[in-house]
Design a protein that fits this description.
With 195 residues, this protein is an all-alpha fold. It has eight helices and two strands; from the N terminus they run E-E-H-H-H-H-H-H-H-H. A hairpin with a 2-residue loop joins strand 1 and strand 2.
């Protein structure tokens, strides 16, 4: 017989040491019969607990999981580093296996391992940004002959209007200065990556 408290019998599931796991399982739709066998609680108790103590909001929160305050940029960085370390470790083992297969004259295995090495190096290249996928082309219009012609034409057309000429020249200098700064930064970044 259940112990009687101030408000009637106490719920067997509420006082169970695995209540959190039971609540989560009930919220996810695990059958009370299966939970009764797993946790040694009567299926009637599980039905009552589910009906009386698992409100819709609590079920939704259990299914959604805990509120996590995750720094996605930091997570992406650490996961990328971990992925890179694992790929490098795997490549070391692949090279060892490659050597063993070559020493034993197993050309079929050499071919299979070479394909895996190729995939490994391709993934490392993509991860490091050394290997671009597809065709990417960036054209700086400021160094194109057509831009130079346009600039000369604008300057000539604005000669009769000195104030407008100064305003346009100022804007052009800003745009060209920013482009020069960006190109210098890209060049330094490329030189650093090659070292």
């Amino acid at each position: 017989m259940a112990a009687m408290g101030k408000h009637g019998p106490q719920c067997h599931v509420c006082k169970h040491r695995e209540r959190a796991a039971i609540d989560l399982a009930l919220a996810r739709g695990v059958s009370p019969g299966a939970l009764a066998r797993r946790y040694g609680v009567g299926s009637d108790s599980l039905y009552r607990h589910s009906r009386n103590h698992l409100a819709a909001q609590l079920r939704a929160k259990l299914i959604a999981g805990p509120d996590l305050d995750i720094d996605l940029e930091r997570l992406r960085e650490t996961e990328s580093q971990s992925l890179l370390m694992n790929l490098v470790a795997l490549r070391r083992r692949l090279f060892h296996s490659f050597d063993v297969a070559e020493e034993n004259g197993d050309s079929h295995m050499v071919s299979r391992i070479a394909a895996q090495l190729h995939r490994n190096m391709e993934l490392v290249g993509k991860l490091l940004g050394d290997l671009n996928v597809g065709h990417t082309s960036v054209t700086n219009v400021l160094i194109q002959p057509q831009y130079v012609e346009l600039r000369v034409g604008l300057v000539n057309a604005l000669r009769p209007f000195p104030e407008a000429a100064r305003a346009v020249a100022s804007v052009l200098h800003q745009i060209e200065g920013k482009a020069a700064t960006d190109m210098a930064a890209d060049k330094r970044q490329l030189a650093g990556a090659l070292q």
